[in-house]
Records
---
Amino acid sequence: MSKHTDSEKGLYMRAGTRLNPFVVADANLCIGCRVCEIACASAHTKGDELLTIGNINTPIQPRLYLVRDGQTAVPVQCRHCEDAPCAQSCPVDAICQVDGVILIDDKRCIGCKSCMMACPFGAIELMPLYDQGRPVIQHLPLDNDECKQAYFASKCDRCAHLEEPACIANCTRNALKIFQPENHKDSRMVAAAKSLSQFAGNYSH
């Protein structure tokens, strides 16, 4: 059972009637240059300062992950599932849907890895948590007062804070695009209708 109150559900679960769009890559165009990863990491770095090699003080943390398989390279990222298994598996309700985007609240996240195991696409990763360039340390309740870097679950949020996802805007090969389920369905139906029409025409002769 969800732990959100009714008011929170109204705020965070504004589910629409449209299917959730997501970013998809064309493996035939991708050359594995990792520009999408760098653009993603830069777009999600707090602060307005332009990041360069000389002033980056935290590890590059993209929210999509380039996968190589032989001669093929393609980025993998969140599909923003309609009934997201990551959200269903989260024990602290750190994952919610807002305007067709599945989001993770890093302040609620406890780093339990449940969402990682639940995601069928491997699109979620645990990332070290930083605050103003400094690692956030959590104190474990052990006798030796051990300290450990804090982690949070991270994945594509479709750059909800930008007009266009950074990976799409910066891909040099135009290999990434927003996949609109309704548009895809319409185009497939039109193609099927044309095919059937051609078949019927040939059969009538």
---
Amino acid sequence: MKKILLAAVLFIATSATIQAQLLKLGVKAGVNFASQPGDSSLNGVAFDKDGITSYHVGVVAEVKLLEKFAIQPELLYSTQGATYKFADAQEDFKNELAYLSIPVMAKIYMTKSLSLEVGPQASFLLSQKNDVRFDDANTFDFALNAGLGLKLTESIFLQGRYSLGLTDASPNADVRNSVVQISAGFMF
């Protein structure tokens, strides 16, 4: 009986150790350099656009499937948008959209610490600070992401990523979200 109990304890301990190596959870935060490329007129009124600097923060998981391949789903609060300058206006107008973003990245490890990351991202609009009067931003945004990840230690990592929006940010304007993200994070 003692041998069976000892074998069960060893099996559970080994399973827990293997699972800890296959699944890691963490947090990340960073800066967004966002813009909205596309049409530069709204109802026949021309304008210039500039990007905005904003932020993202959230949780991340890494599921190691092979020695050099992992899947990294994330849940992020991310702000994006642009600043608009209309020719007849004296001031700039800012369009800032806050999203709950869910990227699912495939991570290909080129070395033990450097990874190539690619994958889709679905984003759901949470709020809109809108000085431009785009009355109704689309509530769903779909994007493709690509970037690099660097593990500084087993727990601390850096990421750089480009996100290219594939859907219009508003039905009233032919603009899409485009974001460069630089992140730092910690895996537990």
---
Amino acid sequence: MALWQGHTPELRAQVRACAARLRDEFAAAGAQPVECPILLPAATLLDLYGEDIRARAYVTSDALRGEQMMRPDFTVPVVQMHMEGGAEPARYTYAGEVFRRQEEDEARANEYLQVGLEIFDGSDPAAADAEVFARVQSATSRLLLRAATGDMGILMAAVDGLDTSAARKAALHRHIWRPRRFRSLLDRFAGRAAPVPSRVALLEASDPFANAGTEVGLRRRAEVEARIEALRADAATPPISDREIDLIDTLLDVKETLPFAIERLRDIAVDMPSIADAVETVARRAKALEARGVDITSLEFEVAYGRHQMEYYDGFVFGFYDVSRPYLPPVASGGRYDALTRVLGRQSGRPEGIPAVGGVIRPGLMVELGESA
């Protein structure tokens, strides 16, 4: 369903007016309004998300510029713009269409308006997190919405602390945003999953290339040999202990109001010290949210929150959902993406990146839920 499919001119005008109001609110709070291109180089998005992005983005080709993708969100182009010369600290706001393929759910729009606020400021990350959350909450306060929060940094820290190889940790990190794949890797690395027979046969063969036939495809023999050696090294790595797997499971089960979640996380950190700093980051953010007037006693916090759709966030994550229609996508969402600024910063000669956090709102959903301009 496209953005304006079935919409009357009056409804279109209402959505546009709502978007303008939201952007103006962010601008009045000190954010600089910016425009971003609709067509983005596909190579940049593929480097960030891998081939999976093709299933969600509209791809086209240009004879001069090569493969392009229609803008799936604003965060990537805003980060690129900032890393190429923006002063710090900086705040940006924007409003415009984004485009997402919806092959499994016809009810969801494949083109819709998005309004956002992005803050680039490393002086006090907890305060910046709280500011974005509070401003998005205020901008959507006319609606009855449920807020959910989490922090991707906790699970990342837990993976970093596992007593296993760097290669296994890297594999787990890559799939933190794919819960099923993450679980299957955990089970395999813990020795809980039966080995794949074809892989066992390959590793036991004295000459894996004996019956390989003619070399075809893009991968050269040296690359295949390196992959086989990596598989052999992994097979020789001791399994992750049951104790560590159980602690990961306990961590992923944490779903409480924020104050109680912090208490539980501190208890878990006694047995899993690698998460201690990440837990204290959550505690500092809680104080900053409270200072912004957010009622943290009723604010939901879930360690596993954001793992299905927030793949470039590496810290604080949040979303706002309609209470009466939980099947709808989030009316607003956002989070911290420090790692993204480092990745995109390398392209502009600033590999150190800069701490950054942002939030986006869908004015079309706000109007659908009864919001007026």
